[in-house]
Every structure is written in C-alpha cells, then in structure tokens.
Amino acid sequence: MRVFHYASQPSWMGLLAAALLGTSTVQAIELDVEDGDSIRKAAKLVATNMMSYYTGMNPGDNPGNLPDPYYWWEAGAMFNSLIDYWFYTGDDTWNDITIQGLLWQAGENKAFMPANQSKTEGNDDQVFWAFAAMTAAERNFPNPPEGQPQWLEMAQAVFNTQAPRWDTSSCGGGLRWQIFTWNNGYNYKNTISTGGFFNLASRLAKYTNNQTYQDWAEKAWDWTAEVGFMTPEYRFLDGASDLTECKPINQIEWTYNAGVYLLGAANMYNLTEEPKWKERTEKIINASSVFFSHDPPNVMYERACETVNTCMVDQRSFKGYLSRWMAQTAQMAPFAYDTIMKRLKASAQAAAKTCTGGINKNVCGLKWTEQKWDKTKDFGQQMAALEVIQANLITRVAAPVTKDDGGTSKGNPNAGTKPEKKIPPGLDYDITSGDRAGAGILTVLFMIGLGGSTGWLIWE
C-alpha cells in the first residue's frame, strides 16, 4: 500500500458507459437508510460510477488491475466491495468481472503474489486481496470453476505465506510493511500489515474452527499491544522503523487500522465467547469515536488528512473499509449493533448528499461531513461511499457462513506452501548487505516524507 499518489479522472469510456445508463443517473442520489429499495438503488448508482474507473475487462488490458495512479491492492479492495454489493443487493452485474479479476491475480501459488507486482507488493497489499477471497467464502459467492483456485484456498494460501514472515529479529515480532527488501518501507513495521494478518487469521479461525489460526490471531493481537502500536485507550497508531526497534512510533491514526482490528476482535468474540474479546471489541468501538464528527453527529471522516486537504489517493478509500468492517462487526458482536448502526446510518446519509458532482450529478465527494460535493473525483472515494451506503443493508442479510454451517468454498490448509515456492521471512533470494543498506535508506527517506506531510498529527 502506498501513500504517494496523485488524483485521477475516470476513463472516457467509463463516463460514456455511465451516461448511457439512462435518465436515472442524471440526478443527485437520494437515500432513505430505512428503505431497502432506496439503499439498493443508491448503491447501484455509486457502484456504476466506481466501475467507470476499471478497465481490466477491456481487450488488451490486464484483468484485476486498475489504471494509474491506483495501486494493485486497491483493485483487490474493489472486488471485495463488489462481493459485498452482490451479497447485499442480489445484483450479479459485476460477478463475472470479479471472478475473472481475482483468479487472474491469484498468481502461481494462489496467494496473490503475481510476479509483475514484486516491485510494489507489500504484506498489506497482499492481505487486501485475501480479504476479498475470504469474503467470497464467507458470503457463498459463486465458486470458481473446478480446477481453478478456490476462495477459501486462496485466503489460506495468503495466510501460509505471511505466517513465515513473522519477524522476531526486531521489535519482538510483527510483519514488515514490505515483503521484498528492494521496496521502499521494508524496514517499517506497520499496523495495517500485522492488523491485516490478525483479521485474516481470526476469520479463518471462525470459518474453519482450526486452532492454529486462532493461536496466530492471539499472537498478532498481543504483539500489537506490546509493541505500542495499540495504545492503552485502544487507538491504533501507524507503525515504526525496525532499525530503531520500533521506537518512536508514528502517531498517525487511520480509520482502516481501527476497522481491521475491530472485525478481528469481533470474530474472535463470536468464535470463543470469551469476555476479553467482548471487552476489546467494545473498547475499539468506543475509541473509534474520534473518526466521527460532532456536527453533523456521527459522520465518519479521515481525521489525519481531510481537514487539511492532504488525503492522497489511497487514503481517500480508507473510510470504506471501516464502514465495511463495522457492518460485519454488527453481525459478529450483536452487543455493538446500536452504536454501529447509528454511525453507519448518519455516515451513509451524509455520503449520499455529497454525490452531486460530475456530468450526471451523482459523483461522490470525499468529505462526508460537508454533506455536499467538494468538487473532487476519485475512485477510492466512490468505493468508500459505496461501502458505507450498502453497509446499511446488513440487517437484511444472513451472517457469514462457515465450513460447518453452509459454506461451500473448498479449502486447502497447505495452500501456498509448496517446497519450491516457500517464501521465507523477507525474501526468496539471498539478501545482501547492500540490499539491507538500500532498504534502510529508503525507509529513512520514507519516514521523513511522511512526517513532513502528516506528521503534525492529532493526538488528543
């Protein structure tokens, strides 16, 4: 996952496709969060706008990729949102595109490590694709043809490639941001990478009832707390350099870090019914109130960048993941339902009010708290609006399935672990001293740049 991007416009073909949808698109999006039909209609419009950016289904293009400036991981997040869309609405418009993209990007070892992404892929990037596969298994999304990688199998493959990367050589454990030493940020251990691993492990534990996944989820949670990436108040900080044993910690707080741990904790509570996981889930929900405005009340915002207009391309999508995981938490931890739905309803209504931009007057803005279009266009903010709107259908759908309760996706606990394809911690080739020095320099430069852009951040 990267933080240095520039804004993009939809492709002209995408805009044309949206225009051809008919008169229903030539008006602002109206949303009644108490009316299922209204939510589905709004979700359809926003999803259509989101898909105007995607070109992977075009002849000669690469299935599963978004055009520049969007990085590969965000396409995985998009497919997850489309699986959610299908599950919430019953509309299968984009199912074939979703299946095609996920299978195309699965890679030779089925673990979402295609060779052409080695210059950009980090642990967090990889796990966002695993989230899509895991969601497909949990939602009984149509299975791939026999002989192709299966949803549960792909999620297990990602877990099996990430667990060996757990790195105790510094900071007492955790996952590095980057997989490969040549990538910027290799010496940065960040919350979203370990949090993504925790989230995936908890969901695999719930789906398979396998103790190994549960043990790893416990380990990831404990390390996050011990290293200080989670504060005693259950607020999640961004990460730190392992060159200094993860001190000092970057104080930036992002919505998706809270969300990724929230759903993981909720799944662990649902699986174990242990009081500690209920308490942890409740405390994350309470702490995440910092991401919701007071005026208007309960509307989500990206506090690290929205108020100072510094949100980069990746960050424009982050609110969508907190929305997604809050909705799923409402199912896994019913005691959190009232607080979650209050926030989702207010945020969805506010997000819909920003969808008045563009040619057809339904392109969604970034700043939901303004409740009007802020004259910005971006793929990520379309996806975020889609997620928060369709999340309000969570009360109308079934809970995630498991292998013992209706799940049809076939798994393979050894996926991704063929001897000739094993990936040791860090890299699959000999790491030289030059590699390490180069990675260290890049990490220092990265941290300087990050500190210069958002390092002033908010600590209340």
Automatic annotation (TrEMBL):
EC top class named in words: hydrolase
Q: Signal peptide location in the record?
A: 1-28
Per the record's keyword annotation, is Membrane included, yes or no?
yes
One GO term of the cellular component aspect? Answer: endomembrane system
Region (Disordered) residue spans: 402-429
Gene3D superfamilies to which the protein is assigned, alphabetical: 1.50.10.20
Q: Name the chain's protein.
A: Mannan endo-1,6-alpha-mannosidase
Q: Where are the transmembrane segments?
A: 437-459
Q: Which UniProt keywords apply?
A: Glycoprotein, Glycosidase, Hydrolase, Membrane, Signal, Transmembrane, Transmembrane helix
**One example of a Gene Ontology biological process annotation:** carbohydrate catabolic process
